[in-house]
């Protein structure tokens, strides 16, 4: 990707990234800021959110923290108003907030009928699905009103379209995110025109703070589950956060202006291989 190619330019765009203080989304935030975007890091944890902003600013980029819970509409609306007060527009929303909870998983020794914590299952659904729908409504309304178009990028997962053991709640939530992505893309395009696009990135297996102990040993070697993942990933390794950047920049820019309603895997071939 040529950073000077105007087709791929994100210079001057205002990008709001929910969950922007996480490993994957902070990598995207840094890359966007390096290319001249104004980046709003939206998260629940003030310290972690400010740390990403400080890192971007230290590198010469423009970024600001916005503290909100993605499942609380009033907090999102307050953050939206703060973004508009500073930058006057919103061009891109990246819905990166999400996560899992132990009770929404089914371990090898457990029985789904007896051991699923339905309360935690609902919380995982709320964080991942509601936490994608609500920001899309709140920030997408601005994109529709301002008449300059925009791009909504949801973060999906390999768990959305293939059965991956244990992670029942997360899988169901990300599958719902995929369905919502397609639905909203069609709804917007058919009623508001082509200028607002909705797509999703589906990362393969990347080592983050949430899954590090599940995938890797303290010395960095794979656990039994990590080794299983690697055997089923044709390139034979975990992804690096920076490897999401190219797809992210493309979806933010005019280079993807005829792309909407897609779920794009960045997974080292995991979704393509049968394992045979």
Helix content: 40-55%
| Structural class computed from helices and strand pairing | alpha/beta
The low-confidence runs, each spanning 5 or more residues with pLDDT under 50, are: none
Just name the CATH architecture. Answer: 3-Layer(aba) Sandwich
- The gross shape turns out to be globular
Which CATH top level class fits? Alpha Beta
Average pLDDT level: 95
CATH level 3 topology? Rossmann fold
Walk me through what this model shows.
This protein is an alpha/beta fold. It has a single domain (6-204, 239-268), classed as NAD(P)-binding Rossmann-like Domain (Rossmann fold, 3-Layer(aba) Sandwich). The chain contains 9 helices and 7 strands. It has a 7-stranded parallel sheet with strand order 3-2-1-4-5-6-7, sandwiched between helices. Strand 5 (150-155), helix 6 and strand 6 form a beta-alpha-beta unit. Helix 3 runs parallel beside helix 5. The radius of gyration is 18 Å and the shape is globular. 43% of the residues are buried.
Task: Output the keywords.
single chain, 7-stranded parallel sheet, Rossmann fold, globular, alpha/beta, 276 residues
Provide the fold topology.
Blueprint: E1 14-18, H1 23-34, E2 38-43, H2 46-58, E3 62-67, H3 73-87, E4 92-95, H4 112-115, H5 118-146, E5 150-155, H6 168-192, E6 196-203, H7 212-215, H8 224-231, H9 245-252, E7 263-266
Parallel strand pairs: 1-2, 1-4, 2-3, 4-5, 5-6, 6-7
How would you concisely characterize the structure shown here?
This protein is α/β, with parallel strands linked by helices and 276 residues long. It has helices spanning 23-34, 46-58, 73-87, 112-115, 118-146, 168-192, 212-215, 224-231, 245-252, and strands spanning 14-18, 38-43, 62-67, 92-95, 150-155, 196-203, 263-266. The chain has one domain (6-204, 239-268): Rossmann fold (3-Layer(aba) Sandwich), CATH 3.40.50.
């Amino acid at each position: 990707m040529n950073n000077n190619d105007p087709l791929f330019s994100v210079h001057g765009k205002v990008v709001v990234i929910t969950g922007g203080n996480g490993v994957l989304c902070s990598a995207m935030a840094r890359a966007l800021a390096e290319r001249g975007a104004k980046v709003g890091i939206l998260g629940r944890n003030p310290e972690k959110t400010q740390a990403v902003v400080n890192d971007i600013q230290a590198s010469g980029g423009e970024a600001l923290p916005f503290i909100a819970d993605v499942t609380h509409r009033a907090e999102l609306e307050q953050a939206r108003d703060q973004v508009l007060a500073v930058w006057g527009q919103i061009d891109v929303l990246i819905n990166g907030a999400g996560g899992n909870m132990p009770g929404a998983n089914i371990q090898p020794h457990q029985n789904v009928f007896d051991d699923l914590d339905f309360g935690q299952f609902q919380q995982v659904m709320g964080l991942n699905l509601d936490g994608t729908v609500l920001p899309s409504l709140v920030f997408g309304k601005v994109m529709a009103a301002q008449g300059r178009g925009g791009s909504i990028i949801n973060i999906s997962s390999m768990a959305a379209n293939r059965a991956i053991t244990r992670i029942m709640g997360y899988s169901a939530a990300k599958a719902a995110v995929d369905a919502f992505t397609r639905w909203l893309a069609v709804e917007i395009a058919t009623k508001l025109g082509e200028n607002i696009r909705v797509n999703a990135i589906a990362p393969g297996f990347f080592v983050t703070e949430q899954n590090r102990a599940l995938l890797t040993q303290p010395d960095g070697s794979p656990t039994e589950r990590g080794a299983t993942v690697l055997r089923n990933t044709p390139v034979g390794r975990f992804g690096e956060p920076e490897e999401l950047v190219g797809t992210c920049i493309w979806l933010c820019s005019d280079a993807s202006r005829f792309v909407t309603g897609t779920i794009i895997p960045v997974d080292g071939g995991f979704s393509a291989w049968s394992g045979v």
